[in-house]
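Project outcomes to date are best conveyed with an example. Our students and postdoctoral researchers have been running inverse folding experiments weekly, and each run begins with a structure described purely in tokens. The record below, which covers 119 residues, was selected by the lab manager from last quarter's runs and is presented without edits.
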């Protein structure tokens, strides 16, 4: 019975990761489609250098850069651990972070040790 709950949890987390991946790929396609469309049109139709084409080129390149800004937002909202303020990472508010601190202290065997802090 416990194994079924474990496998269900793994399946749920894999589905969540797959949805997040699909969302990231779709946003990538949306953000990069205009610049690739513009490149294809420049090669095939021989677009003129009008103000409209320059504006479209500027917006399409801006969308490419905006894709990098959109990805952390997608990760934050689709993680399921979203905090009260979306600009602050959710791990800042977690119970575990308040109770424990990971102190990167080299131990004789070369590993790291977790020390429990007193509340």
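After processing, the design step wrote out the following sequence:
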């Amino acid at each position: 019975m416990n194994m079924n709950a474990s496998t269900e949890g793994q399946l749920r987390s894999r589905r969540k990761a797959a949805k997040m991946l699909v969302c990231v790929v779709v946003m990538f396609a949306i953000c990069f489609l205009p610049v690739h469309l513009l490149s294809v049109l420049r090669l095939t139709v021989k677009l003129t250098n009008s103000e409209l084409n320059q504006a479209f080129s500027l917006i399409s390149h801006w969308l490419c850069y905006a894709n990098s800004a959109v990805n952390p937002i997608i990760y934050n909202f689709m993680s399921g651990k979203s905090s009260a303020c979306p600009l602050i990472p959710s791990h800042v508010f977690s119970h575990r972070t308040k109770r424990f601190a990971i102190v990167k202290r080299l131990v004789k065997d070369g590993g790291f040790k977790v020390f429990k802090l007193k509340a």
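Residues 2-44 form the longest helix (43 residues). Residues 83-119 form one domain. The training component of this project remains on track.
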